[in-house]
Amino acid sequence: MDWIRIPFSRFAALFRHRKLDADLDEELRAHIDLAITDNLQRGMSTQEARTAALRAFGGVTQTRESYRIQRGLPFLEQFARDLQFAFRQLRRAPGFTLTAVVTLALSIGANTAIFSIVNALMLSSLPYFEPDRIGTIFMHVQGSAAFDGRQDIDGEQWELLRDDVPSLVSAVSSSISSGVNLQAGQSVQYVHAGRVSAHYFDVLGIHPAIGRSFTEIEDHPHGPRTVVLSYRLWRTTFHADPNLIGRAIELRGESYTVVGSRWMRRSIVSGPIELCVSQRNIRPAPRSLFIRYLFRRDKPPSCAPRR
Fold first, then answer.
1. Is the pTM of this model over 0.70?
2. The domain containing residue 265 runs over which residues?
């Protein structure tokens, strides 16, 4: 059990080094005094006896250092001494200390912020079912410098992908939320709403608590006004009423039919989303920074990509 006892005793020696040093000094003096006494009995003078005893014993300082190395953890002791020296130097130069602390704080904060962004965008997976099958649709146009780079597609191009690429389940949503007044019975409250198309929740893999999602009929211009509530809004405002499906509520003074409630903890739409309304007008949508075209690849393409 020496492999347990020795490290433990060395670590414990760090906290009682003063007593151990005093015991060592006392033991060294006892050895030297005995040697001096022996030399005096041999007829040496006091000075000669002490010199001969020290010469025979060896270096006292070297003996102390060797004992300290054997009894403790030298690297920790050296680290503690370095810290003490550094703190003394910093206390002597407060201007340099302030500059160093501010520089370190800014550097650590910047690195933390950059890592948070990289972790959210590149390292962490999306909080949805099979996130590796979810993507955003963009268009790359080669030509003059004004059109180089990634471009958003428009509603007509999105409909072509939706109708002609059976391996994709496509959806569209607003990338920002808007505030609306919700009136349910006699109560009125301000909530955040997003606009999404049919299959939006299917793309994200979000399943309904009650009711259903939007249908393609509700994507058409002048289609039915329908709304899907968040699970929290359904529980708090409507007291988890299972008979709410099919009833009408007022948003912006217009009547919307509740078709479902889904657990929307995270959404592509930014901001705290408490309900989603049907898109009702997709094709005329121009290229916009506020429209996101999403897809889920449900099965591999039927043919390999052309090389």
1. no
2. 135-297
